[in-house]
Write a structure and sequence with these properties.
Layout: H1 9-20, H2 28-41, E1 60-62, E2 75-78, E3 81-84, H3 85-88, E4 110-126, E5 138-155, E6 164-169, H4 180-191, E7 195-199, H5 203-207, H6 218-221, H7 223-226, H8 237-249, E8 264-270, H9 272-284, E9 293-297, E10 330-335, H10 336-340, E11 355-360, H11 368-373
Parallel strand pairs: 6-7, 6-8, 8-9, 9-10, 10-11
Antiparallel strand pairs: 1-4, 2-3, 4-5, 5-7
């Protein structure tokens, strides 16, 4: 846990991007181990097994995107203070913007690129009553045009790719696209040749949100680069996520992985994104089976609405449990903060053949590694393991 008391506005801004916007398990080894377990436990050994299953639509893929970084790039206003994120977040104008890693991934043998994806996405409504056990059925409802982006991290040397792609539902609670799972797992992913995809599935990351503490949306950060994007609303986020995965797993036209062959695809999401991913697993995955497994990290006691205004509002029950009736493995990680403070205990469920609940004692919902060290961790400095601790139990000052 990290104490946040008396910080200056710039540091508070960084903290909000990493902490108030998303929360991550304090012991990285837990998440890393579970990602490896998901790959090992999947009964799908190549992409051909997915060819006969229902598939999402293929979006139009554009890129890699190299524009942006103009005169008005990278400025954020907080009250009367103007902040330049190029210095604060070590951001290079004209490159993909998201709260993730703040070093050049080329230093560790990885290549970062960004693609725009566009098409027609569906919203969903329930075909039956949504019950607490997550055994839901859904059907397509409205449709809308969209244009969003994905960020791709892949081994620069194709021979180093291990065949597994981790697809992260980027978290938008802080008013920006954030990648908590990448920050917590990147050293293991890069040592072992994983590819990572970050999906801007929700409107706040693209268009901004009045409910977020700051507006650090893509269009605010770099209108020259991202002004062409358009998000129709979060009711369409589930199909956008599916189409983003489809663009990587079964590309037509431009291939975001530039020819790398996908064997396994794992969906991951943390905190707010875990709530979205829980609804995706319960309602959408049974009908569009692109994924070989899921890591749902801190969904706490509920899940995101299946649909919301201005579409038909379809809330989900609380508590929401995760369905466990399909062959792909699902692992649900809940930290001590989720259990003791955020109510995940009321959504606890027994293990099943392909479901495991991991409740981890002593873990913060978000921690000092994620805020301070993880974004700069190249995996070669033992100093990142220095313990930072607090004796405070004041939830108002501790995350």
């Amino acid at each position: 846990m990290i104490m946040i008391i008396g910080v200056s506005p710039p540091l508070e801004f960084v903290t909000m991007l990493y902490a108030a916007s998303f929360y991550t398990c304090g012991k990285r080894a837990t998440v890393l181990t579970l990602l490896l377990a998901l790959t090992a436990c999947s009964d799908t050994d190549d992409s051909t097994a997915h060819a006969s299953r229902p598939q999402a639509a293929n979006p139009l893929v554009e890129g890699p995107i190299t524009t942006g970084g103009g005169e008005n790039c990278c400025k954020v206003t907080i009250g009367s203070i103007s902040i330049d994120v190029t210095d604060l977040l070590n951001y290079t104008p004209g490159t993909p913007f998201y709260a993730g890693l703040y070093f050049d991934e080329g230093e560790v043998g990885y290549r970062e690129s960004e693609y725009f994806i566009s098409g027609t996405a569906s919203s969903y409504i329930a075909s039956d009553v949504l019950t607490e056990d997550g055994m839901w059925s859904a059907q397509a409802a409205d449709s809308a045009e969209y244009r969003t982006r994905i960020v791709v991290l892949r081994p620069d040397n194709a021979a180093d790719f291990n065949g597994t792609v981790v697809v992260e539902w980027l978290n938008v609670s802080g008013g920006t696209d954030a990648a908590p799972e990448l920050v917590q797992t990147h050293t293991e992913l890069m040592r072992n040749g994983y590819a990572w995809i970050g999906v801007s599935a929700q409107a706040a990351g693209v268009e901004g949100s009045s409910s977020a503490p700051y507006d650090v949306s893509l269009k605010v950060i770099d209108a020259e680069r991202y002004g062409v994007l358009s998000h129709p609303g979060d009711s369409f986020s589930y199909d956008i996520y599916s189409q983003a995965a489809q663009a990587v797993r079964n590309p037509t036209g431009i291939d975001p992985l530039d020819g790398l062959q996908v064997r396994y695809m794992i969906g991951v999401g943390e905190s707010q994104s875990a709530g979205r991913l829980t609804t995706y697993v319960n309602a959408i995955h049974p009908t569009i089976e692109l994924f070989d497994g899921f890591l749902i990290h801190s969904h706490r006691d509920g899940s995101a609405p299946l649909s919301q205004e201005p579409q038909i509002a379809v809330p989900t029950p609380r508590p929401t449990r995760i369905r466990s009736d399909f062959p792909e493995p699902v692992i649900d990680v809940e930290t001590e903060t989720d259990i003791a403070r955020d109510g995940s205990v009321i959504a606890a469920q027994p293990d099943a053949a392909n479901f495991r609940l991991w409740e981890v004692a002593g873990n913060a919902h978000y921690d000092a590694y994620g805020v301070v060290k993880g974004p700069y961790d190249r995996g070669n400095d033992p100093g990142v393991a220095t313990v930072i601790e607090t004796k405070s139990g004041d939830s108002a000052g501790v995350i």
